[in-house]
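hey can u check if this looks right to u? its 372 residues, i copy pasted from the old doc so theres a chance i mangled smth
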Amino acid sequence: MENTHGALSEFHRASVSDQAAAALRESILEGTWGELLPGEHELARRLGVSRPTVRTALAQLALDGFITIKKGCRTRLRTDRTAPVDHAPPTVCLVVPSSRESLGLGGRPVIMEMRARFAECGVGWEEIFDRTLGRRHPESRLASIVSGRRHVCWLLLGASPTIQRWFAEAGVPALVLGSCHDGIKLPFVDVNYHAIGWHAAGYLAKHGHRSVAVVLPQQPFAGDLACLRGLVRYGDRTEMPVSVIEIAASSSRAALLATLDRVLRSANAPTAIFCMHVEHLLMVLVHLLRSGRRVPTEVSVICRETVTSLDRGLPEITRYQSPTAKQARMTVRVAQSMLSGHPLKKMANLILPAFVAGETVARSQTGVPRGA
């Protein structure tokens, strides 16, 4: 196979040779060949792969102790192998501490993209959605899930500090789809949320907004907190201070909107609202319009993420375009390195999203009535 896709192409080649090695290993264990294997030409014909692929597969079997390769001689099966070697196929297992239905709108596209890309590479894909992992002590359940599984790269999405810390201490390959919580060292692939917060604060400040409400989920992820830090630090470190008012989105929609109304009527009322997630954005936007507040002339609105449906909405939301394809590609590359046992070049793999200016941010007009 020609190397037309960089590192991803290498992953394709490795996966084909792994499959060839697995097929040969199974036939050896079944006693198909006797003491000698056929030549490379014959094996390539039977397996439907190229000779270089067969050669790579044979080299792997030799390392595993199944065969002996000697130049100028036919490949011989080893009879002195004392114990079977674990040859589980490479698999990526997604672990989410919630139900499948509760997965936010922003998380679904990247999962679908990753699933497709891993399938193209010949890597198995499993999903574990388990609400019990969201409890205070999920350690025993995690141990049960991981026990007995081999050649697995664990992909953690929406994981609490307790879950991330357990995997960091368990000594199994684990990759965080998102950011690591403070004090936890695991490789991770994520959007550069701190940069989003910093950019959003600067963009709003240049439009005259000095007070910004930030709608956070009730239990913020590490990426949410990183984005919040970016917003706050912009005001601390520049000559255009931005005051940040945090609004926690409780499980009750009515409670969130009541809090938003109270904040909008306060002395330091925000002139802009920054939503971390699309589901909160939709609630806030509809509520503002229903209550007679004009967007963006009275209240500007901006969202940290997007989904396909927002691309066709009116007015066009000012937002950050989720780099789904980039995130999936990078996740595949990092997982491939972990499954193959190669040392990682870096732990933090951050991606900058594209900014969409949209139509929901305008210059602040303090002093203009904002409605009731």
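The chain is about 40% helix and 15% strand.
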